[in-house]
Amino acid sequence: MDIEGTELLSALNELLEAERAGARVAMETGRSISAPDLAALIEEIHKDEVRWCNMLMRTIKTLGATPSSATGAFYGKAMAIADLDDRLKFLNRGQAWVVRKLQVLIPRITDPSARAELNGMLQAHHHNIGRVEARYAPGLSIEAIAAAQTQEPPAPSEPSALINHILTRFHEVHRQQLPELIRLASAVESVHADHAAALRGLAALLKSMHAELLQHMEKEEDILFPMLRRGANPFVVHPIGVMRTEHDEHAERLAELTALASDATPPIDACTTWRQLCAGVRQFADDLQRHIQLENDVLFPQFEPDRR
User: Fold this and answer.
1) What is the pLDDT of residue 215?
2) Residue whose C-alpha is closest to residue 25's, from 73, 79, 98, 90
3) Could you point out which of 15, 39, 86, 264 has its C-alpha 20 to 30 Å from the C-alpha of 199?
4) Burial of 297 by CB count in 10 Å (0-12 exposed, 13-18 middle, 19+ buried)?
5) What CATH homologous superfamily does 1-153 map to?
6) CA distances from 48 to 20, 104, 183 (A)
7) Number of continuous H segments (helices) and E segments (strands) in the chain
């Protein structure tokens, strides 16, 4: 790892203490909430915080150290806020703090397993920020919320580092995004089948896109990326051409998706799940477009003589 020893342990323990504080805030706040949908949301956030506490403790132990047993100062500050809406907004700011810490930490870690765990934690926090924010600002996308909190660092241009970035920032993220979008779309289609703006066929389209994208990413991971890591050779031009063609097909599918989802804009009377679905579709579309752009315009031209 590029970050090691006491510096790494300090960063992990700082995150652990923050997650423990967030878990306690969510648990104790949930006891005061009577609205079923909000109570369910806070319970899911609590379970997430506990999950990441366990992951961080496990990671610290694998490094031969003892996890901190402290709870971050965030807990006391949050619980001093009597108004539950204001406390939830404060909890979201705490989640955004964790996002910023992770975005600084993850690029410095080269171990694939550790990066995957922390990247999963990062995406879960992005997701929960969006879910809480949607309650107070329904028109805001998850991507816009994250951008308001912190600027995503630029991707590297060196091929091997860029491939690592693509794998963690996009491949792993897409594998989490699409099953969740399929679940949300299926729920909205089932519950709101009679709505004037019903999203008929969205779940089926997302399932098809999921299967296609999984195949595409596996080809990159198993064939193309190992070839690129070994350096330039004339045989990479053909598989790059295949990937470019598939990128064009993904772009066409994205256009279908946004059209079918009404440009990922929920109707004014949409439920929380519908709003989450639209926010998730916007996030996925933004991520996939950025993913394709990095490969087409930054990575591939470094191995195509006629594009240099």
Assistant:
1) 96
2) 79
3) 39
4) exposed
5) Ferritin, core subunit, four-helix bundle (1.20.1260.10)
6) 11, 21, 18
7) 12, 0
Instruction: Give the C-alpha separation, 73 to 125, whole Å.
Output: 19
Q: Which residues contact 76 (CB under 8 A, 6 or more apart)?
A: none
* Stated pTM of the model: 0.54
Distance separating alpha carbons of residues 61 and 127, to the nearest angstrom = 27
- DSSP codes joined into one string, 73-124: THHHHHHT--SHHHHHHHHHHHHHHHHHHHHHHGGG---HHHHHHHHHHHHH
Single-letter code of the amino acid located at 117:
E
The two three-digit tokens of residue 216, written as one number = 């595409």
**Cα 95 to Cα 279: distance, rounded to the nearest angstrom:** 18
Residue 225's alpha-carbon distances to 12, 245, 303, in angstroms, are 30, 17, 12
Please state the domain extents for the chain. 1-153, 154-308
How many Å apart are CA 277 and CA 287, to the nearest integer? 15
CA proximity to 129, closest of 89, 91, 92: 92
Cβ-proximal residues to 277 (8 Å cutoff; 6+ apart), any chain: 181, 184, 185, 188, 199, 261, 266
CB 77 within 8 A of CB 90: yes
The pLDDT of residue 308 is: 53
C-alpha dihedral sign at 156, 159, 161, 167: positive
Place of tokens 């995503």: 152
| pLDDT for the residue 258 | 86
